[in-house]
Each structure stands twice: as structure tokens, then as C-alpha cells.
Amino acid sequence: LVPIFDLKTLFDIQTKSEKTPRLLVLNERIKTVGILVDTPPKNVAIGQALTQTPPLPQLLNKYSHGVYIKDQNIWVEFDFDGFFHAIGNQLKT
Predict the structure, then answer these.
(1) In sequence order, which ranges of the chain are alpha helices (DSSP H)?
(2) CA nearest 21: which of 40, 4, 38?
(3) What residue segments make up the domains of the chain, in order of their start?
(4) Maximum separation of any 2 CA atoms in the chain, in Å
(5) Please, which residues bridge with residue 15 across strands?
(6) How many of the other CB atoms lie within 10 Å of CB of 12?
(7) CA-based torsion, 8, 9, 13, 15: positive or negative
(8) For the chain, first and last CA: distance in Å?
(9) Of 14, 32, 86, 91, which residue is the least packed, with the fewest Cβ within 10 Å?
(10) What is the Cα 91 distance to its own chain's centre?
(11) Sheet arrangement for strand 33-37
């Protein structure tokens, strides 16, 4: 069994997509988790680091290690192991 998270629901993101969500599997063995995504991931060369972090969902702030801008898109580097471990612990209570 692999836990699957819908990040739109978790972060209360109100967007609609005509596409069928895809399952992205992260990590392996006992740390494996799945997340639903609208588009497949893409490889991005890190852009310019932002000196001031834009507002992020509070749940993500603690696990954010860097925020970058590339082609006018904001990218957040975060500790997904720690993040999903914390989410799992919250769901247990």
C-alpha cells in the first residue's frame, strides 16, 4: 500500500483542470508516497534564488529550503520526506 495525496485538496487550491490527474510516485520502499498531478514533472535548471520568499501555504513553510524564479515561474525546493512524514503523523491523530 502506498499513501496518495491530493495536494490541491491539502492546500485548498481552487483550480479546475480538464485533464485527468496522473499519479506521481516519490521515493521508494517504506518512504514511498504518491501525489496527484495535472501535468507530468519536468526537469528544470534552477533559476535565480529569491531573497524574499513569497507567501507559501503554512504547511509548506517549514519544509521549504529555497525559492527560485525561472521563466517567470516560481519554484519551491522542499524536503518532501519530512513534509509527508509530518502529514502522515497528523493523519494518525
Answers:
(1) 7-10, 58-61, 80-92
(2) 38
(3) 4-92
(4) 41
(5) none
(6) 8
(7) positive
(8) 20
(9) 14
(10) 17
(11) 4-5, 33-37, 22-26
Has residue 25 got a pLDDT over 90?
A: yes
C-beta separation of 80 from 63 below 8 A: yes
22 band by pLDDT with thresholds 50, 70 and 90: very high
Report which of 7, 41, 9, 11 is spatially closest to residue 24, judged by C-alpha positions: 41
Q: Residues 64, 84: contact at Cβ < 8 Å?
A: no
**Among the listed residues 76, 34, 82, 36, the one whose alpha carbon sits nearest the alpha carbon of residue 57:** 76
Judged by DSSP in three states, 52 sits in coil
Q: How far apart are CA 55 and CA 58, in angstroms?
A: 8
Strands (E) in 1-92, as ranges, are 4-5, 22-26, 33-37, 48-49, 64-70, 73-78
Strand partners, 22: 37
Quote the percentage of the chain above a pLDDT of 70.
Answer: 99
Q: How far apart are CA 27 and CA 42, in angstroms?
A: 17
